[in-house]
Amino acid sequence: MSHAHRGRRWPLLLSAAVLAAIGTASIAQGLASFSDQAEAGKEAYAKHCAACHGAQLQGQIARGLKGDAFLGQWGKGSATVADLSTYIRENMPPGQGGSLPDQTYTDLVAFIMEENGAEHAGPLAPDEDLSQVTLPAPTVDAAVGGLSTRLYPLPPGPPIADPLKNYTPVTEDLLANPPADEWPAWRRSHLGRGYSPLDQIDTGNVAKLTVAWAQALPAGNTMNEPLVHNGVLYVFGYGDQVFAFDAASGRMLWRYQRKLPEGTALTSHKTIALYGDNLYTATSDNKMIALDARTGKLVWETPLTDREGLRNPGGPLAADGVIMQGMASQAPGGGIITAFDAATGKHLWTFETVAKEGQPGGDTWNGEPSADRKGGSVWTSGSYDPVNKLALWGVGNTYDTAPLRDLKPGMNNDALFTESTLAFDPHTGKLVWYYQHNRNDQYDLDWVFDRVLGTLEVGGQTQRVVVTGGKSGLFDMLDAKTGKYLKTYDMGIQDYIDRIDPVTGDKHVKPEKTPGRDKGPVFMCPHGGGGRNWSPTSWNPETKAFFVNARDVCTDLTPTSGPGLLSTGVNAVYAPPPDGDGKYGVLQAIDLQSGKLLWETRRRQTPDMGILTTGGGLLFTGWMDRQFVAYDQKTGKQLWSTGVTGVPNASAITYAIDGKQYVAMVTGVGNPLSFGIPDVIPETQLPPVTSAAVYVFALPDGE
After folding, report:
1. Secondary structure, 3-state, 580-612
2. Closest Cα partner for 354 from 345, 363, 346?
3. SS3 assignment, position 109
């Protein structure tokens, strides 16, 4: 490329670290010089940028990228090439930021640098620190960016709110008992209730609810429950992007976009966490990262594990200065829960959810060698009991059911710690107590979901309890301090357990319902992809009413010549329930004090998101037909609904800004609960176009 037309050339200020990286960068990219890289950037520019910015960077539909106007924004010293690089990567092409390869973005930066008369001692590397590199200053100061005020001043506009200026650290007390207008933790608080006392939107006016604002998120699986603190809404988007929005207007305040190793399988993460000055999230490349909640800048990152085959679809629990994360696995070794210091990222402890020989519970695997044991996945975040100072986590099942099915003489086949609630000291990882809800699960009916904390009258005395349920639709109530079993509620959607011990809570499985290749098809309810699945429940502490949704679908556990879903040699095929009415979606209200069903409403479509309840007497949830719906908590009557572009995922939240209440929810392409439902409900369609968004609703002004 000839450089004669580019005018004067300016040396760049380079740090020692930059100079040290230059030699290896050139070899790694296969580029002989900075000019060679700029030439590669020119080709990328012509393909991706020229249509808007002009073939000569002169500006066309979009502003120009060279000359005094451009340098007035990027070449005055207040901005660096690192800032320019970050901006381009996060925002270009428009609406598709981050979609180009890392090297392409780096080459584009080199091209823009050279077009503006800047030199560099060698090719740029994608991971090079450019924070000390600056562009030349403009020759004249007549314009900044794409705006000229030479003849006419810019009239003042309305002030732009910056809620991040008001950010205050998230404390332990805030997470245990948030102010009414906030949603700073998954399920709103450490207690896991999914309830807000806000009551501006109520049963009398909810029919007037309308969209206040909406923002597109990166297209893909999106199941994240947003958080709100100090007027800022935080949400995790597909492709490991984290966004901060003004919670009143939807204006983006910052975005973090992670650079992932090539070939990384992208995962959706159900939860993020706020603690102190930071936001915490797990990443698709199995790191735990802390971002500055005010700026989105990376504070620290640390590996979650060095083991292969582990995923983190759940999310972190932040409590008492510790960040905990559960991980899922179908590989030998099983799942883990691991913990880090919130301030530094230092690893504190790891707990193996599949007990090995020589460990507590290690003799409960029917003699299976430790190296072959599988399961115990943790794919839902935990809760924290600030009274007893215990972190409460749920554990899933094992797909490797064959070695456990038939009890060997002198052995134990309970398979700890699958299907259990685990109570930890968050600082040490000491297991204070555990309770196994379902021994030796042969059906893929996890108990890995939310743990809800509250108080009830038990035996004439007020008692602190933890409530959780499995896919079976059975909900166990335990003493939160000791894990002692108290009682069970049955939603009525299972048929494989015929009795429950009233003292221990042990669940007796009907022998004829045990599946295997040697037994022929076994019909049972519910299906492992149905029942009460990962969608969180909600508990109103004022009325003591507990709300849950489920999928009333059954299964034929059908023998297969291959390995099957379960290693007993069966696949789980969807089937309608006996005497079904064609309505497979179930929403129940339960009085946990008495154990009575308060009401039930059914819908042909199945639920695909969790439950939000409010002090206004409302319940919000969403369904596979892309309807977001509000119900009366007392009666189950539908009061309002609206259609959205994607499947409603995660759970809705509510918050208030300057006295105005909002309800927010996230859509995506659908979560795993939706994949088999079209087999049962043929008219069900997953959205044909991949999308994701956050929707925020409010009453019209003046209402």
Report:
1. CCCCCEEEEEEECCCCEEEEEEEECCCECCCCE
2. 363
3. helix
Residues 6+ apart with CB under 8 A from 183: 196, 226, 227, 228, 229, 653, 654, 655
- Looking at residue 146, what is its pLDDT? 64
For the structural domain made of 190-589+599-698, what CATH number should be given? 2.140.10.10
**Cβ neighbours of residue 577 closer than 8 Å, sequence gap 6 or more:** 493, 525, 552, 553, 554
| Nearest-5° Cα angle at 640, 580 to 246 | 125
Q: Are 106 and 44 in contact (CB under 8 A)?
A: no
CA distance 165 to 664: 23
Question: Does residue 16 have a pLDDT over 90?
Answer: no
Integer Cα distance of 503 and 283 in angstroms = 42
CATH fold label, 4-148? Cytochrome Bc1 Complex; Chain D, domain 2 (1.10.760)
Q: Tell me the CA distances in angstroms from 270 to 187, 376, 419, one per residue in order.
A: 11, 18, 20
Q: Lowest-pLDDT range, 46-60, 648-662, 668-682? A: 668-682
SS (H, E, C) 477-524: EEECCCCCEEEEEECCCCCCEEEECCCCCCEEECHHHCCCCCCCCEEE
As separate numbers, helices (DSSP H) first and strands (DSSP E) second, the chain gives 9, 41
Label the pairing between strands 612-614 and 195-196.
Answer: parallel
Return the H-helix or E-strand segment holding 352. Answer: strand 347-352
The helix/strand/coil state of 94 is coil
- The residue ranges of every structural domain in the chain are 4-148, 190-589+599-698
- DSSP state at residue 260: P
